[in-house]
Amino acid sequence: MVRKLVECFILGMIYGAAFVCVMLLIGILAYVFARGIPFVNWSFITTVTSILHGTTGIAGNLVNTIYVVVLTLIVAVPVGVGAAVWLSEYAGGGWWVKLIVFTTQTLAGMPSVIFGLFGMVFFGVTLGLGYSVLTGSLTLTLMILPLITRNTQEALKAVPDSYRMGAAGMGATKWYMIRTVLLPAAMPGIVTGVILAVGRIVGESAALFLTAGSGYMLPGSWRGFLHKAMESGGTLTVQMYLSMSKAQYGVAFGIGSVLLGLVLVMNLCIRLIAVKGSVHSKPHPQ
Fold this sequence. Notes:
The protein is an all-alpha fold. Helix content is 77%, strand content 2%. The chain has 13 helices and 2 strands, in the order H-H-E-E-H-H-H-H-H-H-H-H-H-H-H. It has helices at residues 2-36, 42-46, 59-90, 95-108, 112-126, 133-158, 161-169, 174-185, 187-203, 206-211, 222-227, 236-245, 249-281, and strands at 48-50, 55-58. Helix 3 (59-90) packs parallel to helix 6, helix 4 crosses helix 6 and helix 5 packs across helix 6. The mean pLDDT is 86.
């Protein structure tokens, strides 16, 4: 009887904690949208702030945010997944592998401002990239690599060993087995890591403020868009910070609303791409 009561109490605590978390999330979303939606309109999204034209917009910051996310993921995802595959399937279990894993975990917990200082000095000054979108993206790549690597490692470890033995028994090479069996099976965990990485990229401000600057102008042409990587570019979070520092609270909440919507759309797109990639990568019966 006592054991039954204890189990019911623990179960109630679990459900209560889950309920509190969900209600906190709903409350934050409702508050941000309630304060920000009145300021979000077509002009707010498609124009830039200009005293001359009397407009307040975030189009330049929106383009910079998408630019930074795409550029960072292009570099970080292949490197992070490749490093995880090597650590899990090729490196073995030596002391130096454990040292690499420990270093990765340490990097994952390092404050973002430290990454920002390093990126500013190394990428911005030493490599001569200056305050630019590319400098910010390379800095964020260092920040999210541990996250993607660790999530991919855990996803690969969760794949049953019977998958490996079955592929080896059919005469498949190790790389073929990794490419056609392990990675598709581990895709949900990999996608989770990428989604968490996107959340950290979009929500980062300190490191980008030190490396990418706060420029908000739209490129004038496709050539200018391609050259944007070498120019200063403030993301939505940087602009939100600047708006709050100027007591423009309505604009800041409007940016927050757009930011939440952007994260939701990006997460859905990533999941859709991962699902399609997993389906197409499955071996077809002969």
